[in-house]
Amino acid sequence: MTQKENFKHLVKSIESKEVELNLWGSLTIEKTLEIIKFLQLILIGLKENILKNGFQNQLEEINFFKIVKPHILSKLIFYNKVYRIETCCPSDYTSQNKYYLKKIEELNTEYKKYYSQNEFYKYYKANRIDKDIEYFTLGKITPLIGLNSFVFEIDVLFSTYYDYKASRIIAHNMLQNYLQEKVNSSNTKNTRLLQFSETLVWSESHNALIELIYALYVSGSINHGKLEIRKIAVLFQQLFGITLSDIHHAFHRMKTRARSKTSYLDRLKEELEQYMDKEY
Questions:
Q1: pLDDT in tens, 134-180
Q2: SS (H, E, C) the chain
Q3: What's the pTM value of the predicted model, to 2 decimals?
């Protein structure tokens, strides 16, 4: 297999993995972590291949550091940023919207500071090729041109430094689109939930709702058991427009009830069975 064929194979394997994980349908923290590990292994294997076999010619080298590696590394940077963003994301939709908007502001600030007036950024975005040898072939790094000190930490056998900068540019655009979609989705959810919740009233006690929440959580009835109980609680609070006090303490108090520990769930079962009997 030639290097060109190998590169195409790697790109296809990444696309297949993204499809397998349905990353564009539902980008969960677990899926993000899995694709990060997958991409890390891809890059490790790619580095070993390059160090062993090298490039057939300068054109292949430029293509690798300008197109192939940034395509892969940008995804790793993007998914890593998404992982860090989502692990700190609040549970309720209103706070989520503010959170994502703040992240977009941070990206815009980063763009103004690092990209908007950067010569390489202009070169890369303009699809120029006149300096490709300088930017995308090995051994051209020199401290005399005032590069960021990060350059001294890179692997000079597997990076031209500018392949990393190209990857950052691609990842920045991907993250911008991701966050904007999150804001749009959050706005839609907030509007629908507000319209729907105005017609819904929880007419039982708060403890009854907490019983139901815990039952749904421990039974794994929502998201195959992968949704945290606090998020389930937030969902019901938003749905019915109520505030539940500390559900964990309320749950522990239920365990010391004199009669049934699950009085509300018992009543649900009893009334459902009575209703079923009436149907026959």
A1: 999 998 876 555 556 555 567 888 999 999 999 999 999 999 999 98
A2: CCHHHHHHHHHHHHHHHHHHHCCCCCCCHHHHHHHHHHHHHHHHHHHHHHHHHCCCCHHHHHHHHHHHHHHHHHHHHHHHHHHHHHHCCCCCHHHHHHHHHHHHHHHHHHHHHHHCCCHHHHHHHCCCCCCHHHHHCCCCCCHHHCCCHHHHHCCCCCCCCHHHHHHHHHHHHHHHHHHHHHHHHHHHHHHHHHHHHCCCCCCCCHHHHHHHHHHHHHCCCCHHHCCCHHHHHHHHHHHHCCCCCCHHHHHHHHCCCCCCCCHHHHHHHHHHHHHHHHHC
A3: 0.69
